[in-house]
Amino acid sequence: MVEKASKLQIAERQVDDVTVLTLSGEITLDDGDLVFGRRVDDLVLKQGRRKILVDMGGVTYIDSAGVGMMVGELKVIRPKGAVLKLLNLSGQSHRLLAMMKLVTVFENFDDEALAIRSFSRQ
Fold this sequence. Notes:
By secondary structure, the protein is of the alpha/beta class. The chain has one domain (2-120): 2-Layer Sandwich (Transcription Regulator spoIIAA), CATH 3.30.750. It contains four helices and six strands, in the order βββαβαβαβα. It has a six-stranded mixed β-sheet. Helix 1 packs parallel to helix 2 (64-77). It is globular, with a radius of gyration of 13 Å. The model has no long low-confidence stretch (mean pLDDT 88).
């Protein structure tokens, strides 16, 4: 399933019990941030999925609203027992998270297999 917004595309696949969301494009105010938030809400709140891995390797730009939405989603899904982890942060994404002092809020990985295995440790 692929969802398209004007600036963000999200492809979804399952690897065992982990839902992998592969993002491409921009996560910006009133565009990508809303698409991302709706998708995660649907997965966790409606479908009951608990393990979400977000592959950000195709994200070309993220602004503070995009980061804010990601943090907001953590606050929504954690009480439901869900976990969201990041994969393949670009240099810009990593710098923005570091600047906002959020690098430690999200567990992030450069290797998908390692990221998938990390969910079983929780």
